[in-house]
C-alpha cells in the first residue's frame, strides 16, 4: 500500500459529487445575465478558508510593500486580522477535521499563524533587526511547514509540492530586490486561491466514525461516482 493515493490526480477540476462533510456550509456562486452564465462556482468550507487566508496574505504583504504606514500600526492591525482569520478558520473547519480525523493539522496551522505573528510583533516592538530583515523568509518557511503537515495528514502530493514551492520562494527572494514583501504576498495568495479553485489529491476515504451509517453510505456512493469521472 502506497502512502499517496496513486489513483488520484495531483490537481483536477472540482467535482460535484461531494462527501457529506464537504457539503456542510457549502457556498455556491452563480452569475447569469440573460441566458448566459458568467460565473458558476462552489466553495466548501475548506475552500473558504483558502480564500480567506489568500486575501489576508495579499493585503498584509502588499500593504507592507507599498504603503508608507508605520510598522507599529501595521503590527497592531495585522495581529488583529490574523487572530480573526485564525478564529474563523477554526469555526469553518472544526467539523471537517473531526470527521476526517485531521485535528492535528488544524492545530498545526493555528500554532504557526499565532506563533508567526507573535514573533513578528516582538521583532517590531523590540527592534530585533535580524528577524525584521527576514520576515518574508520567515512566513514562507512557516507556510511551507504548514503545507508539509497538511500533505502528510491528507497524504496529498499537491500540498507537499506547495511546501516545496514556498521553500524555493525563499531561495528566490534575494533576486527580487526591494520587492520581497510583494513577491511573498503574491506567492502565498496565489497558492491559497489556487487550492480554493481546484480539487487536490487525498488519501482514500476512511471509516467516518462521527457520521451515521446513512451518511457513510452516502460518502461511499459519492466516492464511487468521483472515481468514474477520473
Explain this structure.
With 230 residues, the chain is mainly alpha-helical. The protein has a domain at 45-200. The chain is built from nine helices and four strands; from the N terminus they run βαββαααααααβα. The chain has helices spanning 20-23, 45-66, 71-99, 103-125, 129-132, 135-154, 157-172, 180-197, 213-228; strands at residues 11-12, 27-33, 36-43, 199-200. The strands form two sheets. A two-stranded antiparallel ribbon has the order 1-4. The longest helix is centred in the middle third of the chain and has 29 residues, at 71-99.
What layout of secondary structure does this protein have?
Layout: E1 11-12, H1 20-23, E2 27-33, E3 36-43, H2 45-66, H3 71-99, H4 103-125, H5 129-132, H6 135-154, H7 157-172, H8 180-197, E4 199-200, H9 213-228
Antiparallel strand pairs: 1-4, 2-3
Helix pairs in contact: 2-3, 2-8, 3-4, 4-6, 6-7, 6-8
Amino acid at each position: 500500500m502506497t502512502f499517496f493515493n496513486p489513483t488520484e490526480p495531483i490537481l483536477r477540476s472540482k467535482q460535484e459529487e461531494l462527501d457529506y462533510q464537504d457539503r456542510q456550509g457549502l457556498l455556491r456562486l452563480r452569475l447569469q445575465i440573460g441566458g448566459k452564465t458568467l460565473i458558476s462556482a462552489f466553495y466548501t468550507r475548506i475552500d473558504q478558508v483558502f480564500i480567506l487566508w489568500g486575501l489576508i496574505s495579499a493585503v498584509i504583504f502588499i500593504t507592507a510593500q507599498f504603503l508608507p504606514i508605520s510598522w507599529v500600526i501595521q503590527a497592531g492591525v495585522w495581529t488583529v486580522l490574523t487572530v480573526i482569520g485564525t478564529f474563523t478558520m477554526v469555526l469553518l473547519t472544526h467539523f471537517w477535521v473531526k470527521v476526517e480525523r485531521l485535528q492535528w493539522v488544524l492545530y498545526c496551522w493555528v500554532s504557526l499563524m499565532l506563533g508567526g505573528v507573535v514573533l513578528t510583533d516582538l521583532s517590531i516592538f523590540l527592534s530585533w533587526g535580524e528577524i525584521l530583515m527576514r520576515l518574508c523568509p520567515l512566513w514562507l518557511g512557516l507556510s511551507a511547514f504548514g503545507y508539509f503537515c497538511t500533505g502528510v495528514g491528507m497524504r496529498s502530493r499537491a500540498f507537499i509540492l506547495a511546501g516545496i514551492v514556498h521553500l524555493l520562494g525563499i531561495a528566490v527572494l534575494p533576486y527580487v530586490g526591494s520587492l520581497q514583501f510583494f513577491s511573498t504576498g503574491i506567492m502565498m495568495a496565489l497558492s491559497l486561491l489556487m487550492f480554493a479553485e481546484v480539487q487536490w489529491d487525498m488519501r482514500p476515504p476512511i471509516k467516518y466514525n462521527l457520521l451515521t451509517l446513512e451518511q457513510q453510505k452516502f460518502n461511499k456512493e459519492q466516492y464511487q461516482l468521483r472515481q468514474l469521472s477520473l
